[in-house]
Amino acid sequence: MSIPKDIRTTNGRGRVYDSILDTIGDTPVIRVNNLGPKDVDIYVKAEAFNPGASVKDRLAVNIIEAAERDGTLKPGQTVVEATSGNTGIGLAMVCAQKGYPLVVTMADSFSIERRRLMRMMGAKVILTPRAEKGIGMYKKAQELAEKHGWFLARQFETEANADIHSATTAQEILSDFKDKRLDYLVTGYGTGGTVTGVGRILSKERPEINIVLSEPANAQLIGSGHAQERNANREPAVSHPAFEPHPVQGWTPDFIPAVLQEAVDNDYYNDLIPIAGSDGVAWAIKLAQSEGILTGISGGATFAVAMAIAEKSEAGTVILCMLPDTGERYMTTPLFEDIAEDMNADEIAISHSTPNHRMG
Fold first, then answer.
1. What pLDDT is recorded for position 217?
2. How far apart are the first and last CA of the chain?
3. Under DSSP, is residue 94 helix (H, G, I), strand (E, B) or coil?
4. Is 142 exposed, middle or buried (0-12, 13-18, 19+ CB in 10 A)?
5. Is 210 within 8 Å of 184 (Cβ atoms)?
6. 74, 68 Cβ separation under 8 angstroms
7. How many other β-carbons are positioned within 10 Å of the β-carbon of residue 146?
8. In the chain, where does DSSP find H-type helix?
9. Catalytic, out of 45, 56, 133, 140
10. H or E stretch covering 33
11. Active site includes 56?
């Protein structure tokens, strides 16, 4: 059979994989074609191409493998961690493949889809009251680890978090933009692993790149200038006074993580731009409907900041925006609030335009 002329073709990856974990990383950089000024090049790094569909797959596998290497995680030992969802999903995937039981603590304010995805991969999900915020789920994980002798993943403090972004995410950006202009890298923060790990490398290898960090406009922890109170283990002692609940799930817990503190202390970013959660929702929808790129509210918020930069930039500027995850785990959040389940008037009119097999 002959292949039709000009049809898209593929050649495979030239290798087979020993496990799902070997597919983590090497996520694509994709041009944005239909949004933004025509004389500015905007790209997104689509972390949804990781097997667990988020950037947190990277830190999940490295936390476990670093603990295996140094012997702090024993064969068959239960892993426990506090998470808003994506780290838990990544850990559930890693633990399922490697044979570790996983217990996740998560505030009950986060999307139901995330709980179900973790449970689908065998994790136990322990909900904590939303009124106790991130600190509540954090302390619950600590209590469980101490009570049962479980391995606490400590995503907010462990060196393994930023290390994997230095070893993978930063290297991918350097490779994809080798001998190419790149003026801005835009990212938000949850644990701070991305900005810290990438910032370590780009500040030395490509210091001309402006790293822009963002946080919710109504929860400006870094922007407040108020230092985070910590204990001797670099853990948050109290909830940060600038925190308010916000809709950007995965961004900005109610404390400044120790991993992020490294980026703050070492000036790994050049600018800090707050963004409203409603803008994150709006731009995530625009990305989906204008580019076919499905991302969550955090991706929409990061992209909103990238667009604001693009509108003020000179011709020829090149911007790269991190998109942390996919939009599918936001079905029960404000992202899908106005996306109808039933046919609207236009859809009913299309249905009625032919006589058969119609509803409404």
1. 97
2. 44
3. helix
4. middle
5. yes
6. no
7. 11
8. 56-70, 86-98, 112-120, 133-148, 159-164, 170-176, 193-205, 258-265, 277-291, 297-312, 345-352
9. 56
10. none
11. yes
- Per-residue model confidence (pLDDT) at position 1: 67
Residue 313 structure tokens: 């930039």
How far apart CA 302 and CA 189 sit, in angstroms, is 10
**Inter-axis angle of helices 193-205 and 258-265, nearest 10:** 30
Domains with residue ranges and CATH for the chain: 20-54+170-336 (3.40.50.1100), 56-152 (3.40.50.1100)
Specify whether the backbone of 82 is left (phi greater than 0), alpha (psi in -120 to 50) or beta: beta
**Helix 86-98, helix 56-70: angle, nearest 10:** 50
CA distance 218 to 347: 38
d(C-alpha 253, C-alpha 105), whole Å? 14
Q: State both tokens at 167.
A: 């070893």
Cα(120)–Cα(144) distance, integer angstroms:
22
- 351 as an active site residue: the answer is no
Q: What is the pLDDT along the chain (360 residues), one digit of tens a residue?
A: 678 888 998 999 999 999 999 999 999 999 999 999 999 999 999 999 999 999 999 999 999 999 999 999 999 999 999 998 899 999 999 999 999 999 999 999 888 999 999 999 999 999 999 999 888 999 999 999 999 999 999 999 999 999 999 999 999 999 999 999 999 999 999 999 999 999 999 999 999 999 999 999 999 999 999 999 999 889 998 999 999 999 998 899 999 999 999 999 999 999 999 999 999 999 999 999 999 999 999 999 999 999 999 999 999 999 999 999 999 999 999 999 999 999 999 999 999 999 988 886
Point out the catalytic residue in the list 84, 203, 214, 298.
298
Contact call for residues 222 and 310 (beta carbons, < 8 A): no
Q: Give the model's pLDDT for residue 196.
A: 98
Closest CA to 21 of 50, 1, 55, 63: 50
Where do we find the tokens 């944005």? 32
Q: Residue 296 burial (CB < 10 Å; 0-12/13-18/19+)?
A: buried
